[in-house]
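In the design runs reported in the main text, the only information available to the sequence generator was the tokenized backbone. The following block is the verbatim input for one such run; it is reproduced so that readers can re-run the procedure and compare outputs position by position.
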């Protein structure tokens, strides 16, 4: 655990969707898939963001409030202050794996997929869901990694019309997977955990929660089912959602 604040310069800004931007920084961290860093905006707030890549450090940030709105105004050459990484990472199981991401919940799943050797990525299937085609993040990035990508949209504007959970259930009925990993809305992850448990498939979920202390586990704001998300998570065995 690294509690020292570091400041890095933004070298590139990618517009992922109308609400999501990727910030590439001129530094690196020793992080594992599923971990996060705490980004500090002086005088405003400090918030956790999942690591997209560790070298260079890349953060994907959705504009959902005052802090993220301010971050979205940052440009190349501006600086970001952070500490970390923190949290428990994914346990990567060898074999055929399924990744299920809802919206920008795909961020830690992308880090997971990119950490797997290129020659094995053909065994990775990714389901990405959003309300509309314009809100689907990281689809092209996963394809460039060599993963099989399946899309779902609520309105049917791209891919399967419906929810990620519906498509995942259909897929798990037809194909055999060694592990399932999921991140996104709680209701989605709970359903994925239930399906995986019924089929006796290893499953991990990345739980999003509000952190105040950010990695110390002392404020209790992120308690979930008796667990401290910032320290014991954010990655948990899917059984915690059953």
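Verbatim output:
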């Amino acid at each position: 655990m690294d509690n020292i604040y570091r400041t890095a310069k933004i070298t590139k800004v990618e517009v992922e969707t109308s609400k999501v931007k990727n910030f590439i920084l001129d530094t690196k961290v020793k992080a594992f898939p599923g971990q996060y860093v705490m980004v500090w905006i002086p005088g405003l707030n400090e918030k956790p963001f999942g690591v997209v890549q560790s070298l260079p450090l890349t953060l994907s940030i959705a504009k959902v409030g005052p802090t993220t709105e301010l971050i979205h105004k940052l440009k190349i050459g501006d600086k970001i202050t952070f500490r970390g990484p923190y949290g428990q990472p994914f346990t990567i199981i060898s074999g055929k794996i399924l990744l299920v991401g809802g919206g920008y919940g795909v961020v830690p799943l992308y880090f997971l997929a990119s950490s797997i050797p290129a020659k094995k990525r053909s065994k990775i299937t990714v389901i990405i869901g959003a309300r509309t085609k314009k809100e689907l993040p990281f689809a092209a990035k996963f394809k460039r990694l060599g993963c099989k990508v399946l899309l779902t949209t609520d309105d049917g504007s791209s891919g399967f019309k419906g929810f990620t959970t519906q498509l995942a259930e259909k897929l798990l009925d037809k194909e055999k997977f060694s592990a399932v990993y999921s991140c996104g809305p709680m209701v989605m992850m709970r359903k994925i955990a239930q399906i995986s448990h019924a089929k006796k498939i290893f499953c991990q979920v990345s739980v999003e929660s509000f952190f105040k202390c950010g990695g110390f586990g002392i404020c209790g704001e992120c308690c979930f089912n008796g667990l401290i998300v910032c320290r014991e998570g954010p990655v948990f065995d899917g059984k915690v959602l059953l």
